[in-house]
Each structure stands twice: as C-alpha cells, then as structure tokens.
Amino acid sequence: MLFNSFTFWIFFGIVALVYALLPFRWQNSWLLAASYFFYGHWSPKFLLLIVATSVLTHFGVARMVAAGDPASKKRWLRAVLAVNLGLLLWFKYYLFLAGELNRLLAEMGVEGGLLPVWKIVLPVGISFYTFQSVGYALDVFWRRNRPAARLLDYCLYHAFFPQLVAGPIERSKALLPQVEIPRPKLDWTRFQEGLTFVLYGLFQKVVVADNLAVVVNHYYARDPAQNTGVDTLVCLWAYALQIYGDFSGYSLIARGTAKWLGFDLMLNFNHPYFATSPADYWARWHISLSSWLRD
C-alpha cells in the first residue's frame, strides 16, 4: 500500500475518522489493528514476523529489566539482539553471502557450493522496525529510557504504520511516550502542518522522484556502449535527486499523516544537498539512521 496510491488515502481516511471518534483507551488498539492491516496488505505471511518480533522483544526486555544481576541482564540483552538482528541478517543478507561464498569456492575448484541458495523474499520495512527494536532494547539497558508498561503500547510503537516501511527510525524515548498518553486532538494548526508535510512529500515522490526514475531507467536499459559521458553525468544527478525524492518524500508524508493523528515524528532529511562538507551531509541525510548508528 504505497503512500502515493488512492488505496492508501482511502485507508487513511477511514483510520483517521474512526480514530477521532474513539476515546483514548481504544485509540491505541485501533491504530495497532490499522497498522497490522497496513503491513498485512502487502504480504499477510510476514505479518506474523513483525508480531512475533514485537512480542519477543517486549518480554525479553521486561525479563532483562527484572534480572537481578548485571550478567543476567546482559544475557537477556544478547538474546533480544540475536533474535532481531538474526532475522534481519537472514532475510536481507543470507542470499547475497551464500551466492558470493559459493562463487568463490567454485573459482577455487569446489563444485556444488557450500551453502544452499533459496529464494528469499525480503519483508518490507524489516530494517526500520528491527532498528527500532534494537534501539529500544539498548536504550532500556543503558537506562536512557524506561520499558513500555503494556505489550499493546510497545507493539504500536514498533508497528506504527505511517513510519513502518520507510522511516524515520523513531527512538523509544521520543515516540513511546506519545503512544502511552492521550494525544492532542486535530486542530487547524496541526491540520495545516500535516497538509504541508503531505503535499511537499507527494511532490518530492510523484513529481520529482517518479519522473527522474524514467531518465535513470532509460539509461540503464540501454547498451552501455551507447551512453556518452554526458549521459552518465545526467544519470548520476538524476539518480541522486530520485533517491532523495523517494526517501525524503516518504518521510514527509509519514510526518504529515502522523501529525493528523496527534503524533510528532522527527525531521529525517534537512536539505542534504545544501551541505558544505561530508560531515554536514551525513548530519542532514536520513538523520534518524545516522543518529541511530552514532548512538
């Protein structure tokens, strides 16, 4: 369910309308159900994966907090990290690593390959919700934040649909408190702010990124011998703007839709192509990811 599709906006309209009519004690349940429907709309079989990682992370961190000695706390932390990062490595990198290892062994004369190569479908958004789980566990372990009091609240923090598949990667100390307390109702100011984010995000995605994708795809579809230096330079800049429009556009739409639901998500892109140095660039590009890696 893409943000720039009519299906998403029909879905969001229904979610927002029902959400506005519900008292706070039911709003989180409704948003969690909507988030799981949003994720399951892409592939129902992977819905179990995100639910399982939410449950295992929540109870694993709870056991870590309840452990009586530092060694036990570390063991529970390692278990939570192993589950989350193990699944990410399996789905995202196993096929690549197995293929490269088998290719290397074939060049060394070892036939048949060492590792089986299966067709693995990458679950959408797995990097984003894995990083949120890992960040949550580490923040609680380092006492930067307290654990979620309820499983439902943690599951919503983990699977909140506006930022589920494309970020920003929200830290628990910023988003989890917003899940646990009543949010402000939609007023004219929040509506305007959300609309600005959404329209600017759709412009970046639909007008900029999708049209530049035509240029980039045309370049790569041609015989490389037909491409001149000018063609390559045009493609380079077109792709740089395309990928920015995709990432930044989705993040802005996520901020706008979350704003309409009473949530405030972090700024994720801050005009990175106006940076004055590489360090300044990485401080502006995918801020939630670079700050996560730094911390």
Structural class label:
mainly alpha
Number of strands: 0
Helix and strand run: HHHHHHHHHHH
Please mark out the parts with pLDDT under 50 across 5 or more consecutive residues, or reply none: none
Average pLDDT metric: 91
Helical coverage, percent range:
over 70%
**Binned strand content:** under 5%
The count of helical stretches stands at: 11
Please summarize the sheet with the most strands. none
Radius of gyration: 21 Å
- 3D shape: globular
Q: End-to-end span in angstroms? A: 32 Å
Description:
The chain has helices at 6-21, 24-42, 47-66, 70-107, 126-141, 151-159, 172-180, 188-221, 229-260, 278-284, 287-294. The longest helix has 38 residues, at 70-107. The protein is built from eleven helices and no strands. It is an all-alpha fold and 295 residues long.
Strands, helices and their partners?
Layout: H1 6-21, H2 24-42, H3 47-66, H4 70-107, H5 126-141, H6 151-159, H7 172-180, H8 188-221, H9 229-260, H10 278-284, H11 287-294
Label this structure with key terms.
single chain; 295 residues; mainly alpha; 11 helices; 71% helix; 0% strand; globular
Short description:
By secondary structure, the chain is an all-alpha fold. 71% of the residues lie in helices and 0% in strands.
